[in-house]
Amino acid sequence: MAKRDTEALVQTRQTAGFQWPVRVYWEDTDAGGIVFYANYLKFFERARTEWLRSLGIEQRCLKDSTGGLFVVAETSIRYHRPARLDDELIVTASLIEKGRASLTIKQQALLKTEQQTTGNADVQAATLLCEGTIRIGWVNASSLQPERIPAAILGSLKT
After folding, report:
1. Of the candidates 28, 32, 61, which has an alpha carbon nearest to the alpha carbon of residue 46?
2. DSSP state of 149
């Protein structure tokens, strides 16, 4: 196995952070049968939303109770390999930086490949397809002006 191939293989149980399963459907692919590049951003959005939900932060309730919401301010994406129709993916989200008005989240899309047994534990092997960082900012929902993230939300997040 080439060095590049080895670097692209990760052990997802050892990867810190939230994981969300995604299946690739026809609507996700282009004419060549591979996932259209912009759809990885949709997969990342779903995983971030479910990550926040797992922490008790539901976006609709958040807007209704605080008058604020998160918006994407910046993205940086690197594509390694394509996903294809019917592939099972694992999309991750890990908080890497917490500011007063924004959060930076590292995300990956991994191809779920095989179950491996190592010692006493089963480890899910996965191939890295796409990775990136997404910075989301907190804004007033009416004016879309930046504001500080409420303390209760910041308190529920760990880096």
Report:
1. 28
2. P
Catalytic member of 5, 28, 30, 122: 30
pLDDT at residue 144 in the model: 96
Which of the two residues, 124 and 63, has the higher pLDDT score? Answer: 63
Average pLDDT, the chain: 87
Nearest Cα residue to 74 out of 140, 146, 149, 134: 134
Q: Is 64 a catalytic residue?
A: no
Determine contact, residues 108/128, Cβ cutoff 8 Å.
yes
Please provide the DSSP assignment of 12-34 as one string: GGGS-SEEEEEE--GGGB-TTSB
Q: Which residue has the tokens 């996932």?
A: 35
pLDDT tens, position by position, 103-127: 999 999 999 985 555 555 555 678 9
